[in-house]
Amino acid sequence: MTTAHGTPVTRRERRTRKTAKRPPKVTFLGVLGELLFTAGLLVMLYLVWQLWWNDIVVRAEQDSGAAALSESWTGGLDNLPTTTDETDFGAPAVSPEPVDGETFAILKVPRFGDDYGAKIAGGVSKARTLDKIGIGHYPDTQVLGENGNFALAGHRNTYGKPLNQIAELQVGDSIVVQTKQGWYTYKFRTLEYVTPKAVDVLNPVPQTEVTEMTDSFITLTSCNPKLSTAERIVAYGVFDSWRPTEAGPPAELAAQK
């Protein structure tokens, strides 16, 4: 056998040419491997979107939404007094019991950043409150202005992760809750890690069976560790002061203007 130019073709060259013409062999394991690789890549991209980019977008939306709601209640902070005196404004206004999924307040924590804000709604269901709005108020715990425990829950990851920085709180940090009536300021005291079954953190006086309520507390709960529901991280604060809307924001927030 010769080539078109009359050059003899060796046996080895004939075998090589025959082998080169054969299409690649498709195997079940090969197809499965490619499918698993593609699926893994899609899962990784989804996680990047869900745990990083989507959280950035949702967090920004929650911050801006809380700021807009705050301004609607105050008519614009520029129109309010900027005094930070320690005037006693008397007993704080008692907020009504919120309806499930109803936004009634805003959480502001200077430690979490100047732009941080998260709406608070009634109930702690994922579908109606935690995933959709941000922070939820535990039913059957006390409302703002009452003695007892004003207890809240929020995500530490995903859906804007409003309590992502809860472990960074330091003793004395301000935790401010704003409503249409004014601002309630609490001072952070301590963190605690408990099991999901430790519902006594929601008692009127957390972790006790005391029924006589003479003080006001705020309790923030979220999951621990991050990306897990094995435990709960709990932050406690005690009531410090109250300022009606017409008196302007507390010093901690006035400094952020």
TrEMBL record:
Q: Which CDD domains match?
A: Sortase_E
Q: Where is the active site?
A: H155, C223
Question: What keywords appear on the UniProt entry?
Answer: Hydrolase, Membrane, Transmembrane, Transmembrane helix
* A Pfam family that the UniProt record links to this protein: Sortase
- Give the InterPro entries listed for this entry: Sortase (IPR005754), Sortase_Class_E (IPR053465), Sortase_dom-sf (IPR023365), Sortase_E (IPR042003)
Q: Which parts of this chain are annotated as the region Disordered?
A: 1-21
Query: One GO MF term, please?
Result: hydrolase activity
Q: Which residues cross the membrane?
A: 26-49
Bias category Basic residues: which stretches?
A: 12-21
What protein name does the entry list?
Sortase A
